[in-house]
Design goal:
single chain, 40% helix, seven-stranded mixed beta sheet, alpha/beta, 9 strands, binds S-adenosylmethionine, 2 domains, Rossmann fold, two-stranded antiparallel sheet
Length: 288
Amino acid sequence: MREGARRSWKVREALAFAHRELASAGVAQPAREARRLLALALVEPFPALGPDDPLPRFYLRRFRSLVECRRRGVPFPLLEGRVGFLDFELKVRPGVFVPRPETEELAERAMAVARTLPPQPKALDLGTGTGALAIAIARARPDIKVLAVDRSQKALSCAAWNVRSLGLVGRVELRRSSWFSAIEGKFHLIVANPPYIPRKALPKLPREVRNFDPRAALDGGEGGLRAIKHIVAHAPRYLHQGGWLLIEIGDGQGKEVMRFAQEGVGLVETEVERDLAGKERFFLARCR
Ligand SMILES: C[S@@+](CC[C@H](N)C(=O)[O-])C[C@H]1O[C@@H](n2cnc3c(N)ncnc32)[C@H](O)[C@@H]1O
């Protein structure tokens, strides 16, 4: 940090400093972010500080290092170490994909399906990350058992923390698996939000995504559909008759995913739905 490293600052000076730093780094809504970062720096219990109060050195140091992280593009949830998802909160940590609002829409569809399933149903979440989808499904249907898998050990330990803190141990099982490689048996519902960004588009992603989400959570291979096609091709073997497959896809991928699914023999009632922003986002199908 460059300015006024030695003297103590008033709250309003600290906020003005943060505003300048964030605005010059191209952060949208720098005033709002400066206040959020200050609130984060002040931790609990929130000291009652007015704009002309001096900011105690300990908090000033914390605040300045948070501003610096934000300047470098560290996403807010990673600074806070948590993110809201539907009506619950998830721990997030570096190296684990931060769940996005459009995935809440996938979760809502999966929860609606889960409520229609026969007693003691089983669900599978492929590429669980923080555990967001598996946890949402388990909370929606008290007698369901969810198996949640990921290839990343970091993701699995983050998901384990979330499963524990939300009281779902015994209802959400976590397992290391590359897609279906360590899966046996059949499920009533399979959900996945796999990596689906075409490889050549990765460098053009916003830096918050490009630099802080794990590449394995984003990289969908040459055309973006490598993981999606793998899941569509293999899912029928792991679904009960009439079982559901729900996959998050990228905008513009719907036609190709539909064509691929319809070429196979295992899936019926295939459909692509749009998210609230009007983008193609969800592939839905049932097992023949
Ligand atoms: C886009 S993230 C989705 C995470 C979480 N389901 C969500 O919606 O927030 C994709 C996840 O798939 C995982 N993944 C990537 N390749 C995988 C593979 N071959 N097998 C299992 N999981 C994989 C990544 O580690 C990452 O956690």
